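Class, study these two lines:
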Amino acid sequence: MALQENMTLLNDAALFCELQKQVFALEPEIKKLPDYAALSDTIQNMHTRILDLSSRALERQRASTGGLAIGEDRETLANLRTVLDDISTGMVHGELQASAYKVLKEQLPRLFKHFPCWAVTSLSVGSHVPLLPAIFDLVIIDEASQSDILSAIPLFFRARRAGVIGDPKPVMGISSCSGFGGFYFAWIPGWGT
């Protein structure tokens, strides 16, 4: 029995030596990786720069499109709004609905020329943006930790690409109020009852 225990011990020691050899081989590569704090600072600086550049790009885009449409484009966009409203309220059915979607697909490039960037909540997208596949180049879901997957699916359907931004350690919402805050709301007539 002692011989078998010694063999097991030797096998474990050999495995330990082999793993330690692999660790020593990886150590120089690990030391080449950037410092976490420096990397975090770099990411923060890049984020600030992206915000600045995005703001400038949107301002230049707005200036290049000349603002709101005029003439024929203005009338077409007004008609397109009526079509969008009819589709979103469910007022059109059958052939009329198919015709409305055809007009919508044809006129969307004109709409996007004048309004290239849209901002909606995942809950209001259905009443503002038609349910057509890949009509946007990019959808960005911000505060993803505050969104559920089912609400995001229609957004993904409407986009060719998606960016999902969230905090891995989100701050939870306030679900109750205690202490002074609870007293304050209880004191206001109609609150806390």
Residues 117-170 form one domain. The longest helix spans residues 2-32. Residues 180-193 have pLDDT under 50 and may be disordered.
